[in-house]
Structure prediction request, 144 residues.
Amino acid sequence: MLRKAYPERSMVSDGWISLDPADIGLIESVYKKNLREGEERLMLAVLESAVEDFQNYVLARKPRGKKLFQEAEEWFLEKDSEEIFSFENICETLQLHPDYIRQGLMGWKEAKLKTLTVEDHHQGGRPLASTRIRHHPVRLAKTA
Prediction:
């Protein structure tokens, strides 16, 4: 990442910019930016993990999968939390709109559950009539 160098804070020699190591303000700003970028990457990873759990376990039947889905769904739906890694705080930091994401996830969940309901209806009901035509073996007798 390119940074703006100020002449009074740096020295230019042979095309290279060397920063004054005694400039604490400049060092702190670089450190804070790196820290901030790392924090944002971590927040994005938390968000991605929650979306994966939400989508992978929406139809879970085992207790562990159900729990992972429930925790992810509750995390997405929670509002006004003061925790640093709350859904709304992560969205604010990453400049995302939390209600838009919630709406998309809940719409996806409804569609997925409808698909499951249709599949269960076809599988759980009476079997459909077989359309296969069964042929009985025919023996041809040789006539002499």
In short: Residues 9 and 23 are 7 Å apart (CA to CA).
